[in-house]
Amino acid sequence: MGPECFVFMLKEPSVQPQEKEVHRQVPLIYILGNSHSGSTLLSFLLTFHADIINLGELKSKTWLKVRTSSCGHPVNTCPFYGAFFSTFNALKEPAMQSIRSINPIQFLFQKKIKPSKVTTDNLQTFYQSVCGRVTDLYPDTQYIADSSKRIWLLNAWIQTLPPEMVKIIWLRRQTKANGASFIKRGSPFLKSLLTIIVNNLIKKHFLGTTHHHYLEGNYDRFYDAYPDEAQRISTFLGLELPVTNDLNRNHHVIAGNAKTRQAFANQFTGLHKDDQWQPILSGTQKKILSWLS
Q1: CA–CA separation, 218 vs 200, rounded Å?
Q2: Is domain 4-292 given the CATH code 2.60.40.2550 in the classification?
Q3: Which comes out higher in pLDDT, residue 5 or 188?
Q4: pTM metric for this prediction
Q5: What does DSSP say about strands 4-8 and 18-22: parallel, antiparallel, or unpaired?
Q6: Which H helix or E strand runs over 8?
């Protein structure tokens, strides 16, 4: 479906009608989850459908670092970013700066944290600009995937856009594997454990209070039963998600797990079970995390 056109009739009969192009709004798939929960992988799996465009973590401070896009191009020659990169960042920075400072703990004690009108206006402007760029390049786009994971951005999205424009997938991962991923990156065991427990509690509470429809995804099933998991996601989104990759280049990701981005930038060779975390945990740590799984 191409951009919509609306015709405005002027009062003066001598003046011909003018046409103004208005880009359609594209729904967001917002991937919610803990750090190291597989959100980058899920966002790429969604691109198995050619009409889902993956932009990775929209929350990322992309104005601080120039990177190579997952499509294989530096941002200055990327089909999506290219000349759009400066506009993208100029609109995103003011949209994110005030909501970025929100402490997630606040969502446990406040029924609603409402962004200011300036913030929602800025976020709406940013969103409309992204939609315009996406639909110019991919006229048949059905969804834009945002793998930002953070509650503060999800809260802002659902208070800026109509409910039907935000599809939430809460991606869960086995506590042992998630904890080991934190530890592998230098986080102490107890801090990692507390982070996972508190983050899961906040997300569950937030989703319960907002009453926004969501799908709970299972990262561990990507390897053991992906066709079944893909079917659940397909039903939720209302479009059939392929289980194999046709080498689509409908992703322009410059933030998130670097190894995953690299895997999809090159010849994708299929899903590989992540069990490298097992030697990282001691026997005692595994027992503690098993009790909490």
Answers
A1: 14
A2: no
A3: 188
A4: 0.88
A5: antiparallel
A6: strand 4-8
